[in-house]
Amino acid sequence: PFIIKLSSLLLLTRVAICRYPLGMHEGTIRDEDITASSQWYDSTGPQYREEGDGAWCPAGLLQPEDVQFLQIDLHKLFFITLIGTQGRHARATGKEFARAYRIDYSRNGERWISWKDRQGRQVIQGNIDTYNVVLKDLRPPIIARYIRVIPVTELPMTVCMRVELYGCIWFDGLASYSIPEGGTIAAPGSPIIYLNDSTYDGFQEHLYGGLGQLTDGVLGLDDFTQSHQYRVWPGYDYVGWKNESFSTGSVEMEFQFDRQRNFTSMKVHCNNMFSKGVKIFQKVECLFKPRLIVEWESEPVGVSTILDDKNPSARFVTIPLNQRVGKAVLCRFYFADTWMMISEISFQSGKSPSKVCRGRWGFLFIFFLGTETTSFITSTRIEEKADDSSTSILVGCLVAIILLLLIIIIIILWKQYVQKRLEKSGAVLALIQILSISPSLLPDFSSKGKEDSVQGIRLVFLFLRNDFLKEIKIMSRLKDPNIIRLLGVCVRDDPLCMITEYMENGDLNQFLSQREICSKFPTQIGQAVQYPGSSTASCYSNLLFMATQIASGMKYLASLNFVHRDLATRNCLVGNSYTIKIADFGMSRNLYSGDYYRIQGRAVLPIRWMAWESILLGKFTTASDVWAFGVTLWEMFTLCKEQPYSLLSDEQVIENTGEFFRSQGRQIYLSQTPLCPNSVFDLMLKCWSRDIKDRPTFDIIHYFLVEQMDCNI
């Protein structure tokens, strides 16, 4: 199939997909959202309907020096990539059109900015007749709430226009960023390389209050001297800074957003052409503040990166932001070499709570195994420094505490009610009735509570008792070395819970994301990983070994006609010697909430791992699990440092599945990673075949991976 690689195309994400009409023609944009500086008659006023005389016409003859405009209020920030114009056709009675126009835009309705293309031109060529629609790409795209279309003429004339805007909602919510001015590379005998933000629309003196190349959807090439654009200077796609220009050894950037947000992660596209002294940043620290008028919170989110001196490819670096809440983010990027170059920054976030209380309540669940299975619940208060800068926050905290107490009372009453129901029905489900597990398999408790203490208790809370019992019955029947084992359940008292075997290295996503690539491949499984301090190294053979185990576990499930529906690295657990066991706890963990798309009033779905037929048709089969296995394999060969389709919003991922269904060559595939050999990537592509019959079975996948391991030993 025709493959669009995420790492190499200019318009792979927002610019390529954000081309939806925003509603001037369909009426999504209402009449009250459209205003004009003037109008010839009421019948030529601003309106979305094709009524009256069929277009907006400013009053009188338009003079060359006049500034007449049609203004559109979109009510939120949009990423606008395309504009369409048409003259006053009016069922063949109109004769007026605009030969040229320009665009002003605003994000707050106060400061207006004149759009310019990448060569600095403001005027856009319009129509040459009254009936043809002329579409013009906006390069760079516009991020704005308010748009003004301003007709331009060289001679006095009557002008009429019909307008449509194309784009999509600006989900990042980033309203402005402030950065230091970029540097310049002037090597003898070579052209000068300008690394400034050439499309920045804020205040130019100190680069604050605007947006520019870091949010235009264009990714820089591996060679920073080359560019996607025509007739631009070398280095155009990147903003870059030199280490010696900053005494702190870091570049400080401030990001302000349209509203308070709950941040999941930040993705930064960096150059890594180390042969010319360019590397990704060594580490980053980010501070947050919930409102613009308060001080930065003292506790930063910090992440150190793994430097790569072997692969010069530009790449995304994902920084987890741990669900921190704020309206502004201040990040310090620390140099790893002479130069640091960035071409794109994006944020993933959700809605923040209306009031933020600095204290948090947690619940500790402790289980004891003995002659009886009992549970004790203790609540613990986690104290943090109070922010008394606003009385409203204090009031909000008090209200939240009162609501929490009410919820606790309701839970206690509900628990008593359920207890009585259970006593009447005698519905007690013993461990022996569900599982035939020898008591010797259960871990012993240490009186000292140190190394022998049970750490592997997995809790799954389900409000629907029947669903819970159904799930544990299914799990109790699964007997495979690569499937997590159910050790016990507790259904006598609430909360209902299950206990599974302990996997000391946690889930595969976290395990791999903390590793780095070896300098050479090992000769045997187990020789590839060393432990110098806290860092480790993961190599091709280890990845194959773990992937083979996942394929083996899925092969077993497929033999039972069991469909997993949520196969991903977050649902694979790692034990000693790279032992892998497949589980299904990812959805219940806040850490991976960003991997699931919430459908209003329904469920959450891992759409970035789902086959097109599962998303569009609701069809889940072993073949759809094969698709998810291909994505899981891709995760592993990125060392879980990148979310699948990281530059696409959830809505764009769903739109991309439509392209798979239509199969017209416009679908976007995940790209081959530097660590992934061609043979393994070919397997991934087969897993992502449009037709189910063209996807390999797990038997074939397992056999293939075993052969690859044998070849690598």
UniProtKB/TrEMBL annotation:
Keywords: ATP-binding, Cell membrane, Disulfide bond, Glycoprotein, Kinase, Membrane, Nucleotide-binding, Osteogenesis, Receptor, Signal, Transferase, Transmembrane, Transmembrane helix, Tyrosine-protein kinase. The keyword Secreted does not apply. GO terms for biological process: ossification; positive regulation of neuron projection development; positive regulation of phosphatidylinositol 3-kinase/protein kinase B signal transduction; regulation of extracellular matrix disassembly. SUPFAM superfamilies: Galactose-binding domain-like, Protein kinase-like (PK-like). PROSITE patterns: FA58C_1, FA58C_2, FA58C_3, PROTEIN_KINASE_DOM, PROTEIN_KINASE_TYR, RECEPTOR_TYR_KIN_II. Its EC number is 2.7.10.1. One of its GO terms (molecular function) is ATP binding. It is a single-pass type I membrane protein. Gene3D superfamilies: 2.60.120.1190, Galactose-binding domain-like, Phosphorylase Kinase, domain 1, Transferase(Phosphotransferase) domain 1. It catalyses: L-tyrosyl-[protein] + ATP = O-phospho-L-tyrosyl-[protein] + ADP + H(+). Residues 18-168 form the F5/8 type C domain. It holds the Pfam family DDR1-2_DS-like. It is found in: Cell membrane. The keyword Phosphoprotein does not apply. Residues 417-705 form the Protein kinase domain. Residues 1-18 form the signal peptide. The chain crosses the membrane at residues 361-380, 392-414. GO terms for cellular component: plasma membrane; receptor complex. InterPro entries: DDR1-2_DS-like, FA58C, Galactose-bd-like_sf, Kinase-like_dom_sf, Prot_kinase_dom, RTK, Ser-Thr/Tyr_kinase_cat_dom, Tyr_kinase_AS. It is an enzyme of class 2 (transferase). Binds hydroxyproline-rich sequence motifs in fibrillar, glycosylated collagen, such as the GQOGVMGFO motif, where O stands for hydroxyproline. Interacts with SRC. Interacts (tyrosine phosphorylated) with SHC1. Belongs to the protein kinase superfamily. Tyr protein kinase family. Insulin receptor subfamily. This is Discoidin domain-containing receptor 2. It comes from Chelonoidis abingdonii.
